[in-house]
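Please fill in the sequence for the structure shown.

STRUCTURE ENCODING:
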């Protein structure tokens, strides 16, 4: 095996070992983004829920007057 082939094979092995790590990091990054988006949507939903709850209380108070 020539030095050139040996270096090429070594580089292939190195890249092959790094690929799963890069994929895992990308998956973790996507998971963090998804969690952030999920938290944001949950917060928005909670705000809307409390606004509806307050509106319902106000409406009930009006009706009971």
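FILLED IN BY: designer on duty
SEQUENCE:
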């Amino acid at each position: 095996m020539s030095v050139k082939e040996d270096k090429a094979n070594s580089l292939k092995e190195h890249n092959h070992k790094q690929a799963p790590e890069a994929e895992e990091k990308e998956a973790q990054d996507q998971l963090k983004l998804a969690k952030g988006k999920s938290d944001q949507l949950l917060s928005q939903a909670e705000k809307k829920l409390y606004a509806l709850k307050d509106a319902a209380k106000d409406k009930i108070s009006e009706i009971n007057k």
